[in-house]
Amino acid sequence: MLSLTAFEHVINFSEMSQKAVLVGAGNVATQLGLTMSKAGYSIGMVISKTSKSSTVLAKKLNCPHSTNIHDIPLDTDIIIIAVNDDAIATVVKKIKHKSAHVLHTSGTTEMSVLKKHFKNCGVLYPLQTFSKDIAIDLTSTPLLIEGNSKKNTAILTHFAKNISKHIIFADSKKRKEIHLAAVFACNFSNYMYSIANTILKKEKLDISILSALIEETTKKAIKGNPELQQTGPAKRNDKITLKTHINLLKKNKDYQHIYKTLSQSIEKKYKK
Amino acid sequence: MLSLTAFEHVINFSEMSQKAVLVGAGNVATQLGLTMSKAGYSIGMVISKTSKSSTVLAKKLNCPHSTNIHDIPLDTDIIIIAVNDDAIATVVKKIKHKSAHVLHTSGTTEMSVLKKHFKNCGVLYPLQTFSKDIAIDLTSTPLLIEGNSKKNTAILTHFAKNISKHIIFADSKKRKEIHLAAVFACNFSNYMYSIANTILKKEKLDISILSALIEETTKKAIKGNPELQQTGPAKRNDKITLKTHINLLKKNKDYQHIYKTLSQSIEKKYKK
Predict the structure, then answer these.
(1) Which chain B positions have a beta carbon within 8 Å of A109's beta carbon?
(2) Are B86 and A229 inside 8 Å of each other by CB?
(3) Which of A14, B67, B83, B197 gives 20 to 30 Å between its CA and that of B225?
(4) The pLDDT of residue B14
């Protein structure tokens, strides 16, 4: 962890009197805004491309909102860009606040996209899955941070500590790999649950029947080594079951293709 | 739930004085044997194709063991076949105990494989993932049961209730679909954790960094509707991130292919 000692005299954005603006009003912006507000930060404005979503978040944060990025108040100290990865570069070009601290919250976008435009910048990527309507306890969410200088990293660390107990320093290369791992562990495993639910609905059941199974699977995976915990017909190379399952999926070629792809990969990995 | 009233006079294998034999000594046989033993059932023998695994389980259950299926004692009342699905048909042909209750524990194998050979038979499929060395609380594991007659289903229900609080009647067709859903929700999601762990190890990290994320993902999926909780670059159609991730996986064509297959399916499903 970097020491703040050298920078203690610096007025920095970890001081809660500083004014923050959120660019974006999606899941990440919502949860980050709510947590910052709870931690005592003052949110000066919410900017979003659609009036609908900026209005909703601004109401929650009790602050003004706009669809025009040029409306960001001149005295803004911290600008947090929490928009789709594809939109970050476009947003960055429109921000004229050269002296503000500018952060993005993307797992995969490099910090260099900011460095070209701002003197003080960094990344604050929360390693979590967010919904607009489900409040998340960010205090136990790992925050991956990177600053464009030692000083800014230290300032960012101090800021991040007001939000979470779990701060990890990760440069752009490392953060990209962690984000990729998170896509497998979160987005893709959720898609597996989604397919399971679709199959169960045909039988007038739902995913709740699998809760004990899902809880045990994740408990073992987090604690130990998921490689050693792999079970199932592909691992055992149970050919009859594999054939039966592929046949059961004949009406959904997409799910059938996924079943085959994953089973083949598992078989290959565990072949004696 | 079927009523037992009509069968109360029948001597059945839910009475704990009855003698049980386990054919198989893998994960399912181990956990079922341990739970039955704890519930007061007497395990008469463990049969397995290898002496090594039958010895290990027999020691845990304090009973004889053999690699020869013809050694099953003549006075055996319950025979539980817990072997690989592909081996069930072969095992069944070797069992000469025509009057014993014979059960298999497979999710996908139809009960008909037993009906041809035994007067009293059924299926007891525990909807859970098992390891030999991690004890499972079967009392909260759903047991899917099916008997070859009303009487045998009632007897099996009574037996199953001594093992678990969560009994579900499912015929072979329904059980197959539930097993298929379980493969997606358990085996495939574990494989996603396994891939995530491999990626993280390259960065000298491991899957524990993703615990908050994994816990939140599964909590939301079990409670709600995983279709509505989908997040990630494929859902958002974040083309730059998708391209970056595919490029990061260039050294592992297998994982790259899985990433593309799942992302394409998610994109297709959520396309506006």
Answers:
(1) 240-241
(2) no
(3) B197
(4) 57
Contact A216/B183, CB-based, under 8 Å? no
Rounded Cα distance between A41 and A30, Å, is 14
Question: Could you tell me the maximum CA-CA distance found in chain A, to the nearest angstrom?
Answer: 70
Which is nearest to B180 in space by CA: A186, A195, A213, A67?
A195
As a whole number of angstroms, the distance between CA A179 and CA B213 comes to: 11
What is the rounded distance in angstroms from the CA atom of residue A88 to the CA atom of residue A110?
A: 10
What ipTM did this prediction achieve? 0.87
What's the Cα-to-Cα distance from B238 to each of A67, A106, B85, B241, B261, rounded to whole Å? 21, 11, 42, 6, 16
Pair of tokens at residue A223: 């604690």
Superfamily of domain A177-270: ProC-like, C-terminal domain (1.10.1040.20)
Residue B267 CA, distance from chain mean position: 31
Dig out the tokens for B80 from the structure: 């539980």
B157, two tokens = 């229900």
- Closest to B115 (Cα-Cα) out of B104, B106, B126: B104
- Three-state secondary structure call for residue B34: helix
B178 contacts A200? CB cut-off 8 A:
yes
What are the boundaries of each domain within chain B?
5-170, 176-270
- Which chain B residues touch A28 with a CB distance below 8 Å? none
The H or E element containing residue B51 is: helix B51-61
In this predicted structure, what is the pLDDT of residue B16? 58
Task: Give the pLDDT confidence score for residue B165 in this predicted structure.
Answer: 94
- B111's tokens: 């009960």
**Record: contact B199-A184, CB cut-off 8 A:** yes
Provide the CATH topology of domain B5-170. Answer: Rossmann fold (3.40.50)
Q: Closest Cα of chain A to B198: distance in Å?
A: 8
Cβ contacts of A220 on chain B, cutoff 8 Å: 129, 131, 134, 190
Tell me whether residues A199 and B184 touch, CB distance under 8 A: yes
Classify B176-270 by CATH class. mainly alpha
Q: Tens-of-pLDDT digits for all 272 residues of chain A?
A: 334 443 433 445 655 567 899 999 998 999 999 999 988 888 999 999 999 999 999 999 999 999 999 999 998 999 999 999 889 999 999 999 888 999 999 999 999 999 999 999 999 999 998 877 778 878 889 999 999 999 999 999 999 999 999 999 999 999 999 999 999 999 999 999 999 999 999 999 999 999 999 999 999 999 878 999 999 999 989 999 999 999 999 999 999 999 999 999 999 999 96
Question: What ranges make up the beta strands (E) of A5-106?
Answer: 19-23, 42-47, 65-66, 78-81, 101-104
